[in-house]
Amino acid sequence: MKSRPSNLTARVVNIIPMVAVTAVVAYLLWQISIPNVSEIAKTISVRIDGANTGSGAIIDSQGVGTAAPFKHRYFVLSNWHVVNSQESGANSVLTIATSDGRKHLVPRAKIARVGNLDLAILEFQSQYRYRSASIGNSDRLREGDRVYVSGWADPSPQLATRTYQYLVGNLSGRIVRPVDGYGLVYTVNALPGMSGGPVLDWRGNLVGINGRATMDLRTGTVNSVLGIDIDRYLRASGHLPAQKWPKY
Predict the structure, then answer these.
(1) Which CATH number does 45-126 carry?
(2) Looking at CB atoms within 10 Å, which of 45, 54, 61, 105 has the fewest?
(3) N- to C-terminal Cα distance for the chain?
(4) In this structure, are residues 225 and 213 in contact, taking their beta carbons and an 8 Å threshold?
(5) What is the per-residue burial (b if ≥16 Cβ within 10 Å, else e) of 154-184?
(6) Where in the chain is CATH 2.40.10.10?
(7) Distance CA 204, CA 34 (A)
(8) H or E stretch including 75?
(9) 138-237 CATH pick, 2.30.130.10, 2.40.10.10, 2.60.40.1190, 1.10.1240.10
């Protein structure tokens, strides 16, 4: 005569499938909740053309006026060395190209340096709507964390024209006494022209601005790439953007 399983055994047998199903559902929900970082990077990145070339990130927007056609003011964060040129006169303009290919003029009067950092804020107006970056918490970045850098690379023997690039790497170090604000070091071989472009975390939040590379004098290759952490910008500017950014 076969013995019946105990109540405890029966309960365990019933619980195991439930736990497995719960784990699968939780994993699927987690996957769904992960933002598409590459799409975020592409929509907030802009191309900057002028005496120098570079990139930038849209970080804020405001409505302008009440009469049609409605205009929006957009604020772009980039490197000061990208927009500050001795060849640029007071009446000269820069051009910002957004993700839809449209070009927007930026007079010199609409460009301002951020403190003593290698950062600048540029303003342009448009009747079209563009996405602004969500500001992350760069103080919580740790060595080994994944970072994403985007921007518009300059022409090269392999690239006939300026080309959008999306690169993936890891934070490799922090600089205790940064020069010009450069406190982030990461393993992304960003190309010339990508200076001023956004550095994003895995959630798609803006945690830095790409801007400087150091060269190995023996080989002539890039051995490290530096960025300015976004918290340094927030402290230097003295205010948060108008939009309420998600923090983590």
Answers:
(1) 2.40.10.10
(2) 105
(3) 61
(4) yes
(5) eeeeeeeebbbbbbebebbeeeeebebbbbb
(6) 45-126, 138-237
(7) 9
(8) strand 71-78
(9) 2.40.10.10
Query: Model confidence over 6-52: pLDDT tens digits?
Result: 666 666 566 666 655 555 554 444 444 456 999 999 999 999 999 89
The answer, yes or no, to whether the previous bond of 5 is cis (omega within 30 of 0) is no
What is the number of other CB atoms lying within 10 angstroms of the CB of residue 147? Answer: 25
Rounded-to-integer distance, Cα 136 and Cα 104, Å: 27
User: Nearest-CA neighbor of 227 among 189, 164, 181, 170?
Assistant: 181
Give 133's contacts (C-beta < 8 A, 6+ positions apart).
40, 44, 57, 58, 59, 198, 205, 206
Residue whose structure tokens are 């405890």: 8
Contact 203, 223 (CB under 8 A): no
pLDDT digits (tens, 9 = 90+) for 126-178: 999 999 999 999 999 999 999 999 999 999 888 889 999 999 999 999 999 99
C-alpha distance from residue 181 to each of 114, 229, 242 (Å): 10, 8, 23
The position carrying tokens 């940064």 is 178
DSSP state of 138: G
Backbone dihedral angles phi then psi of residue 132, each to the nearest 5 degrees: -105, 150
